[in-house]
Amino acid sequence: MSGSQTMAGRVASLVKGLRSEVPDCVAAGVIDMSTGMLLSVETVDSHPPEVLDMLAAATLDLFQGRNVLMIEGIFKERRGIVSDQHYFQEILVNSDNLAHLFLRVDSADEVVAVVVCRKSVNVGMLFAQARRVLKDQGKL
Questions:
Q1: Domain extent for 68
Q2: Does 108 fall in a domain?
Q3: Would you say which domain of life the source belongs to (predicted)?
């Protein structure tokens, strides 16, 4: 990615890459965990803004809710890890029809990419392709 490309352009490019390169992908988005805002989203269906806002809020709770932060702290303490880096980096959630993969962006620890695929997706390919796109395009 070009260094002169804006943050918004890099985020939009990342979302487009996830949508086009992750198998069975029906939606992708990027959430700023420091603000709880959905920075960009692309989906095959239209969704009301309040549903997309709830996705951002749920992602924030999933990665940085009070209990999650407490568990991270305990795990780091027990393992002797002294770091501000978050312990949980990827979370897969399966619903009745969909697989939701949440991944922290390496270059921006407070940014999470979300990929939603049909549940029939090969989970190994879901992880492999999402990680590859983040590695190639995740320099935010």
A1: 7-137
A2: yes
A3: Bacteria
